[in-house]
């Protein structure tokens, strides 16, 4: 049954019989929800002949800032999707047909969007600090936030704490989610009984919520549990971290003859689940040489982020040893290890303990969230790495207030040169901090999101606009 019949019971459906007089080629318009999502409105439009067609829409009663629909369909039947929708808001719209270079604008019609479902209301509470002025760049984008437990929800949220976009799945949680250069959302899905950032399915959706890719553990070479990261490389292939289980004889150090050691690896697959590349910590380290292996064998290294350096090689952070590694993407050799006991010399005042969301920021520095486990105070570092001389220096260090100490998970991403968006997952709070650690803005969240990414509106065009 079509969505607009479902919506009829909710009172949103409007059928408009337009006729074809006065050069208007539109015969009928039906309005409802797209993918049963309250923030996506679908217009089913029928015309008397094939034409180019789109809808323009705007908030009723305001200075009209007009938005434009996306278009699907052909022949004389069209499905237009209006994405830039606010809940409980009255909109006007008209249909524009283009036939042989001649444009005809229909008379305006109106509809009122629904309120968000109760379970999506009051999710985020944002507050700007007294006398603080938020940078323009911060208002020029949305935050990507994920609910990790079923029913899973992916959100795009503005600086007011307003949900501008969402996508929900019933039986699984969004364990990890990333926005791709293809304007899609790529995620690891997992059950509630799977660990925090671990899952067994991969889902890619577009901004309309249509499924583009869905892989389940067991398909092709996708045999392992994956966790903490899912990316696309330049070839459009899937890149993730997987659990590498090895049976080992640990009797020499007091363990069993067939002990299981859980390590981490990098796996690249195509969209069918065919394995194209695999790397493992077992390729470069021997668990028998780790004096703590009997205590850590169930989760030896605990890799927690994966990204690319500017030269295409991998950056991988590990929670248990507090290091960030750069790994050659071709031969698998470790280029450097940054952190205590690593190969890169660190300044005396760089005393981070455990790191998350390691990446190269727009200034070219290695940036990461410092969990600060030993000192019970979290922060953010951006480091200049000199690979040739195996040295480093601090480009930026933010010490966060002790009240939002976050010992697990978390992220930090530059908004501009003087402010950073920081996610303190365990504290259920996202903050905007300046380089002195002063909080300019805070947002309490009902969900302990793994990270808070930031996506500019220009990357979301034409689906979402300010």
Automatic annotation (TrEMBL):
<dbReference type="InterPro" id="IPR053143">
    <property type="entry name" value="Arylsulfate_ST"/>
</dbReference>
<dbReference type="Pfam" id="PF05935">
    <property type="entry name" value="Arylsulfotrans"/>
</dbReference>
<dbReference type="InterPro" id="IPR011042">
    <property type="entry name" value="6-blade_b-propeller_TolB-like"/>
</dbReference>
<dbReference type="GO" id="GO:0004062">
    <property type="term" value="F:aryl sulfotransferase activity"/>
</dbReference>
<dbReference type="InterPro" id="IPR011044">
    <property type="entry name" value="Quino_amine_DH_bsu"/>
</dbReference>
<protein>
    <recommendedName>
        <fullName>Arylsulfotransferase ASST</fullName>
    </recommendedName>
</protein>
<dbReference type="InterPro" id="IPR010262">
    <property type="entry name" value="Arylsulfotransferase_bact"/>
</dbReference>
């Amino acid at each position: 049954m079509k969505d607009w019949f479902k919506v009829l019971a909710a009172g949103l459906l409007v059928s408009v019989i337009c006729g074809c007089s006065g050069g208007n080629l539109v015969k009928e318009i039906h309005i409802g929800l797209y993918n049963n999502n309250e923030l996506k409105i679908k217009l089913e439009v029928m015309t008397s002949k094939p034409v180019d067609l789109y809808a323009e829409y705007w908030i009723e009663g305001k200075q009209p800032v007009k938005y434009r629909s996306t278009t699907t369909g052909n022949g004389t039947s069209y499905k237009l999707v209006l994405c830039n929708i606010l809940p409980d808001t009255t909109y006007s719209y008209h249909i524009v047909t283009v036939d042989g270079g001649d444009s005809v604008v229909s008379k305006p019609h109106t509809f009122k969007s629904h309120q968000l479902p109760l379970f999506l209301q009051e999710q985020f509470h944002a507050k700007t600090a007294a006398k603080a002025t938020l940078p323009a760049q911060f208002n020029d984008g949305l935050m990507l936030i994920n609910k990790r437990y079923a029913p899973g929800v992916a959100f795009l949220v503005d600086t007011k704490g307003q949900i501008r976009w969402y996508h929900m799945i019933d039986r699984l949680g969004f364990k990890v989610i990333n926005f791709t250069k293809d304007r899609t959302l790529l995620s690891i899905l997992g059950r509630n009984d799977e660990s925090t950032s671990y899952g067994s399915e991969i889902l890619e959706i577009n901004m309309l919520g249509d499924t583009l890719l869905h892989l389940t553990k067991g398909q092709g070479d996708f045999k392992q549990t994956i966790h903490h990261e899912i990316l696309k490389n330049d070839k459009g292939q899937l890149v993730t971290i997987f659990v590498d289980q090895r049976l080992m004889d640990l009797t020499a150090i007091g363990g069993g003859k067939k002990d299981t050691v859980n390590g981490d690896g990098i796996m690249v697959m195509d969209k069918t689940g065919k394995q194209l590349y695999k790397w493992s910590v077992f390729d470069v380290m021997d668990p028998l040489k780790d004096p703590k292996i009997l205590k850590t064998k169930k989760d030896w290294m605990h890799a927690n982020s994966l990204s690319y350096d500017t030269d295409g090689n991998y950056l991988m952070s590990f929670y248990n040893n507090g290091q960030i590694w750069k790994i050659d993407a071709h031969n698998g050799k470790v280029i450097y290890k940054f952190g205590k006991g690593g190969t890169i010399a660190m300044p005396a005042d760089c005393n981070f303990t455990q790191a998350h969301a390691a990446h190269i920021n727009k200034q070219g520095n290695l940036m990461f969230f410092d969990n600060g486990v030993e000192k019970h105070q979290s922060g953010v570092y951006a480091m200049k790495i000199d690979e040739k001389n195996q040295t480093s220096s601090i480009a930026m260090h933010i010490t966060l207030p002790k009240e939002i100490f976050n010992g697990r998970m978390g992220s930090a991403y530059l908004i501009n040169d003087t402010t950073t968006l920081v996610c303190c997952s365990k504290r259920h709070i996202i903050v905007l901090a300046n380089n002195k650690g002063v909080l300019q803005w805070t947002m309490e969240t009902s969900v302990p999101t793994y990270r808070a990414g930031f996506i500019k509106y220009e990357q979301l065009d034409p689906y979402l606009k300010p």
